[in-house]
# Entry
Amino acid sequence: MSGKLEQLKNNLDSVLGSRVVSLTQAVGEITVVVNAPDYLAAAQALRDDPGLRFSQLMDLSGVDYSAYGDGGWQGRRFAATSQLLSIEHNWRVRLRVFAPDDDFPVVDTLCGVWVNANWYEREAFDLFGIMFSGHPDLRRILTDYGFIGHPFRKDFPISGQVEMRYDPQQKRVIYQPVTIEPREITPRIIREEQYGDLGKH
# Structure
């Protein structure tokens, strides 16, 4: 581990202390995992502590671990993962929290710590169904408001549940169950000997 990463690791250990579930280093990056009850306090400490100063939330995404490691994953199913940047110290860290309940995943919002968490959390809610407690406007951001389900969950059907189309008779968009009609998708194979003058060479 480089001296800079070692210093960051020591600072994280010192500031977060018992809040840390695991702290791992791989390919030059550090990942900190905290429990859901400590998530908000850990984020505030990462932002405010002079030895860390992670002033920018670069990204926040949801993760579904249900099929991770070829189905060998034994931990919680849903996680929120944040990529943080300290401009002052020029280092990065990944903060991860697992939702305690797989059936109804909920973690605290980080909107009060980093304002741009707002849209990132809406995306994680929309695509993975992760709820962010205290979020000021948690609603869908990419799918239609009437959409049923969360398309990035590993158990969501690839074809979806319903499809929408414009009905010219009703003069509006309607929803209907997905139908996939059998169709020939084998490409036409050209077997002409002189095609493209290939037989001359």
Q: What stands out?
A: Helices lie at 3-16, 39-48, 117-128. The longest strand covers residues 56-64. The two ends are 59 Å apart (CA to CA). The mean pLDDT is 88.
